[in-house]
Structure formats: structure tokens, C-alpha cells
Amino acid sequence: MKRTIEEINSKIESGEANVFSAHEIKELIKQDNAPSFEDVDVITCGTCGVMSGTAAIFNITVAEAGVFKRAKYVELNGIPVTVGPCPNEWLGSVDVILSGTSKSVDNPEYGGGFLLKDILKGKEINIKAESIDGEIIESSTTLEEIGTAQLIGSRMAFRNYTAFTNPSEESVSSIFSAIPLEGNLSGLTFSGCGDLNPLQNDPNMDVINSGTKILLNGAEGLVLANGTRSSPEKPNLMLTGNLKEMDYNFLGGFKTGEGAEIFDTVAIPIPVLNEDIYNNILIKNSDIPLTVADIKGRHLPLDEINYGDTWDGSEFRPTFNNESCIDCGECAVEAVCPTNAFVINNSGSESDIAYEDCYGCGMCAYYCNADAFDINTGSVNLNIEGTTYDVPIICRQSDRLRANKLSDKLKDLILEGKFRL
Predict the structure, then answer these.
(1) 323: which DSSP letter?
(2) Of 359, 381, 317, 23, which is closest to residue 191 (Cα–Cα)?
(3) Distance in angstroms (rounded) separating the CA atoms of residues 390 and 187
């Protein structure tokens, strides 16, 4: 039995379509209550993670027209951006390209992801530009004043990731951990939303291809092509969307041992056109292998686990007990939190987690000196050279809660007739 996109769109328009988000389907599968092929028209899948290949291109007004001929160097909140490709001669405005991994010249913990979140929040952004004549021009801008702005991800929504631990004695600084990863197998860091990921549910890319409509950080976007470094074994996607329509809750900065990175959230609809596509969406976390490698070698596998080991039974957000908090002087959690979601309140009122910024990485519970934070991120058993080690999961660089929220939003848009397949 087969169905077409046109048939599914007609069912959506008539209010007869059966649309499920990925986490709804997966929960039903766990309960041995999965709907049949005939009862599923669309599944909306989502993923959220650190996506280093993110960039934004937009136009900013530096000064009035005629003040300078061309800019050769521009900083936004201290972050260098690439000037061009159009020089905009004598216009006073400049096209710039911001890399999500670019970092402030003054503070490497403030990078492109934090800047984009600040822009989308409507904050005033400082501009410092140098003209080809050596003149320094300083001004500011806001989201409202920025012209066309497009986000482009060169490789996003990876289907396959690698988890990392550190078997050596010395700490290793890496983008794969929020701070240098301590040695002696003291912790594990991993990425990937497992069975929620769009490419896990469409492994042969039967319906996800160039031109597929998506949600990127809450804005409607498109799949441009396969991403850079994509392969049949490890596919990823090149995506784009209108930055000005994005929701700052779905993207932002993520501090790592090598400075600030950027995270994004992607949701993609999978129309269930035939039974092969239906059978693919029945995949569970426990079916998806996850290689564990030496963070120092990156390509040196130590063992293989699965996403059921990392996600099943875990919690997505921490709780904070203010009464357990002790005056550490310098708060360890404030220092390690990769999204700056926890700041000690020194004004006398209680401190708390800023949940709109929280990523659920688990770092707070592991590093708090007073055990004031609680979140179950679990642990994994690794068999290395015949010896079994119980290694706690201390840093998750993907966020299933945001992935669920965006896939739910996509489901609602489809059912409301505001997103046509």
C-alpha cells in the first residue's frame, strides 16, 4: 500500500490526517501500542545539538551613506565577522558573515551562538568597523534594524555521533566537553537525540532531500543539500532559514573546553508514504549504536553502547535546592554551565536556574560542591580491554527537550494548515 504527498496534504486540509511527533510514536512503541501504517500519515522528528557548521549572513548599517567607502574589518559585540561578499561601496551598510564558532576577541566564552541569541532577543549590538582608509567607526544595531538575515548550516542534524571519554591521566580540552574532560574514565560526554533524529527515522533519505521544508530554530526553512562531510554511513544536512523569524529559545551559545560553540534545533516532517518508511520510524534508542572513543584520539574506538544506554530513563532538566546551596565564594556551577543558565544571585534573593537558557547537559549536578542540583543523566558500562567500568554521563551536548518542543510545534503547524508538506 502506498500514498502520495498530495493525498496526505488533502487529508490535512480536511482535518483527517494522523500526525504524530517522534516522541509520541516512540512512547507508544515502548508500550507495544504503536499505531499501524494505515493510522500514521506524518511523523515530525526533531534534533537539537551543538552544530559547529552554523553561519549567518546579513546586512548591517554601520554609518550614514557617504561616511566611508568600504569596511575591511567589522566586530559585533567584540566578535570578528567576515566582510562581504558585497562591498556596498559608500552605502554605509555592510554585508557580513558570522560564524557560529567565532569568538569575542576579549572573551572566548562569548561566541557566535551567544551573539545570535542576543540579536534575536532584541538586544542592542555594538558595532566596531574599520574602513579601508583606516578610519574606526563605532555604532550599534538591533534585530529590527538589520536587513535580510539568513542562517545557513553547512552540516546539521547528524544521524551518527561518537561519545567520548578520557582514559588517560591528564585532562583533555576539547569542543566535545563543556570544560576539559578529566582523565581516568571519570566521565562520558555524548551528542545526538537518538530515535528522535530525522535521519534516524529516514535512514535511506526516502523523503528528506533537497527542497524538503523544515523548521530551523522555529522558522520555516529548507534542506539545501547533503551537508559537508556527509556520507551514506554518517549523513547530515545542509539547511537554511530566515534568521529574523527564528525563536531564540531554540538556538544559542554553548561553552566548551575550546571556547564557545553554537547549538541549533531542527524539526523535519516525514510523510509515511509506504510501509518501508513506516518500518523505519519504529526504530528505538536501543537499536541505535553509539561508539565510545578516546577523546584524545577521537577515532580510536574503546567500546560500543547504544542511545538507550544514554537517554532511556534519564531526566531532561535539573532541579535546584536553594537551601542546600553553600557560599562557595566562586560558584563551580556558574563557571561550568555551558549556556550561562545559572548565575548566583548576590542581591540577597534566591538563586535559581534560568530554564529558558538551560540545556539539560547535566554539568551542574556533577560539579556542584554542595550537591544542590539534581538530574539523572545516568551512567554507562564500558568494557575496555576486558575490564568493565561504570562511567557517569557528565555532559550531554544534545537536548531532547528542545527537540521535542520543536517537533510538537511542527506537528501543530501541520494540523493547523500553516505548514504544507
Answers:
(1) G
(2) 359
(3) 9
